[in-house]
Amino acid sequence: MQLHCPRCNHPIEAEQINIQKLVALCAQCSGVFDISHPRAKAKRRKVRRPPHLRQYSQDPLHLGFRTNFRLDKSESFQSSAILSGVFSLVTLLMTGLFLEGEVPIFLPLMFVIMAIAAIYALATNAYNQTHIRIEDEAIHVSRAPLPSLTRARRIDLDGVESFAVEETAASQREGYDTPRYHVWAHDADGGRRLVNGDLPEEYASYIASQLNQRLIPDEAANAARLSDSQLDFDEYALEQLQDADASQQTLRPKP
């Protein structure tokens, strides 16, 4: 990919780029500008870890947090609570009618199964944690310890350029008192994939910052790949500035 000057759009040659300092010099207009990759900028941005988000390990990265820590704002928890209460009450009524011989046995059994399913969904919403791990060049998102109907997901890191957060459409539309955000993996081809969704901003920002750090190559590896011309960038820039200054002094009228 050809780099261009943001001022004059002049192509930037390799010898005019300093990878160590992430800056470049334009030979056309003598402008010096930042060439930091969005991932590098994300790495430098420090985000404090939320107190209720647990980091089990740093290498490999393993994060865990309660899937629904605001149960009063969770629609799935509230609907599961209502359904479990309704099905449990109907089960008791049907059991009484069965003992009196008024209904066949399959009716109370059916509502028993429905009540158990609703109670289990209630338990997973209230008790389960979301786990995010980076393993084998991929991100694994799962819920535990109770087996969940939500399937574990795998996001390949191949082609991922950076991770970013974005407020959900529902949060923007409804104006939530606690805005909710998605964490997206942005690909080099312009596409994106959801890593985890419906999170408060501090959770989403911390997760994205930690994932971005795993995409940044070590500075030592970068330095080892530098060419001699790139290492001589500072001397080249100094020469250019000295030449420009000399030209200005030559053109300056004598008193």
Describe this structure in words.
With about 260 residues, this protein is α+β, with helices and mostly antiparallel strands. About 40% of the residues lie in helices and about 25% in strands. It has 8 helices and 11 strands. Strands 4-5-6-7-8 form a 5-stranded antiparallel sheet. It has a 3-stranded antiparallel sheet with strand order 1-2-3, covered by helices on one side. Helix 1 (about 40-45) crosses helix 5 (about 200-215) and helix 2 packs antiparallel against helix 3 (about 105-125). The longest helix is centred in the middle third of the chain and has 25 residues, at about 75-100.
Could you give a short description of this structure?
The chain has eight helices and eleven strands. With 255 residues, the chain is an alpha+beta fold. The strands form three sheets. The chain has a five-stranded antiparallel beta sheet. Strands 1-2-3 form a three-stranded antiparallel beta sheet, with helices on one face.
